[in-house]
Amino acid sequence: MSGHVSIRLASERVNHCVASNNELPQFYTPGEVITGTQDFMRGHGTYVEDDSLKASVAGVMQKVNKLICIRPLKSRYVGEIGDVVVGRVLEVQQKRWKVETNSRLDSILQLSSVNLPGGELRRRSAEDEQMMRKHLQEGDLISAEVQSVFSDGSLSLHTRSLKYGKLSQGVLIKVFPSLIKRRKNHFHNLACGVSVIIGNNGYIWISPQKQDIMVDDNREDIQNYEMQNA
Fold first, then answer.
1. Tell me, what CATH number does 43's domain have?
2. Full-prediction pTM beyond 0.70?
3. What residues does the S1 motif domain cover (predicted)?
4. Which domain holds residue 38?
5. CATH number of domain containing 106
6. What is the per-residue pLDDT across 19-74, written as a single tens digit (0 to 9) for each?
């Protein structure tokens, strides 16, 4: 017996109701009709055809009042002020570093936006500019915070906190930025002795925790050894 198989194109699937903010986000494919009504405004990732609002990319719908957008699952990072990012230094320029942060344009780290060795707070001089490559050079990985967003969408970073700065002795993992949610804390110390920095730009840094404090047992052993050999 041969059965009949019915195939429906994405453009033929119509969602007559649009999910509200309290409901789980719905996934849409390119060409799929989001809504057949005219009560909504067209946002990013959508287009109007045959009096219907359709998705132009594969992603999840976001609705703000009457504005409907489709956020693609695979896209470049779009930064916001206060985001924690992990980036790689591409070039040392005059009074600034160019940093790759998985965004559409390269980010900028100004010389005035970093902590000098020793945490000294003063105006940057010509000597500091000459020593820039000793502080950060091409290929170095850093953690930073988005300080501002320029009109063209590029990001201005800063590392004026002890938790930010140059990264070493670890592994960099890259994921899609859409998989990272914005949280109050993106720095985590796991019980297994591993530190994790989850960048909003999809770059995740995994490194061993810094052993600043000795274990009590080890401290007692050292003290006993010193007393025996005194």
1. 2.40.50.100
2. no
3. 82-160
4. 10-72
5. 2.40.50.140
6. 444 555 688 889 898 887 677 888 888 998 888 889 998 888 888 888 888 888 77
